[in-house]
Fold this protein.
Amino acid sequence: MSNVNLQMALKHHQAGNLALAGQAYRQLLSQQPNNTEALHYLGVLAGQQGDNESAIELIKKAISIKPSGPMYLNLGNALQKSNMPNEAIHSYRKAISLIPNFFEAHNLLGNILLTQNKLHDASESFRKAASIKPDSTEVLYNLGNTLRLQGKLDEAIKSYQQALLIKPDFAEAAYHIGNAFRLQGNLNEAINSYRKAISIRENFPEAHCNLGGVLELFGKSDDAISSLKTALFFRPDYDDAHNKLAASYMAQGKLDEAEAHYKKSISLRQDYSITNSNLLFMYSYHSLKHPEEYLAISREWELACVPALERQEASRRTFARTGLATRKLRVGYVSGDYCRHAISYFVEQLFSNHDRSIIELFAYSTRNYQDNVTLRLRDKVDHWFKEGLNK
């Protein structure tokens, strides 16, 4: 009779009749309090209804009687929803210990490790999931994202391409192929990939935005502006699209339009340091700005982009000076244009002509993009600082 009651409860559950399913599970448990399947599935149902506390309690009770891989999987889901990621990781790993080829557990474990920025462990989980189910576009996409964040761009592109081959309308995979190519400096392939994503899904503001940004790097400001306007048509509150559009207008000398879009970007995301910095840079061209006004805007940038604690620590910091006779003068340069850019032609001459017997050169790059000019400039300084590129 208990099996009949359980099957009836599962039938209601699978049909989405949660109230009837819950009633049937509870009726069965009133007769058999230690029925592990009823405890487990009632816990799953509680999680579906948003009662994660009850879900955890019920599934843990089922596990204490007769543990199984699916129980640990569903316990992990409830723990994750309860903002208990470390406990969820432990639960997913317990599920895998019971069922080594448990595809769902490997994939979910990879997802939560990725959110914790544990990229190596996440990639290993996704690779295992992909080995179990090679045609899972979700896993191939997740693996691609993880590899891209690790800087393994060739592998990331391959993983995205596999997903796109299986699912030709996978717009997000095509978009991230473009992002990986852009990070490699392969801008033509980046453009092709962004256009591929847009051909699959026209309403894709991120693809239009990044396409516009790459077109601007080629000096195609009109085409860039067109793409960025399209991004804003689909998503008017897109702060990065306003920032990139402002940069394209600035490249055309349209400073009023650039100012309007920089300010719009800042209004949408006040702590967006790139836009704040770009606006300050633009004002250095703007003859109508009085020095006091420029100083006030600079202070606004500091308040918006530098955490209060860092400002307080900086104000208290002191430095001991040592005589220059016994050491080289350290000179540092900060730029986002250590690449094929007008600024780089001047910087390269500057780096090449410093007297290195008395000067130690430091270069700080403020963005990830690099090309053959970047590599050439790196060889001309003593110290290069950029995440993943420190020399």
About this structure: Strands lie at 329-335, 359-365, 383-385. Residues 284 and 291 are 10 Å apart (CA to CA).
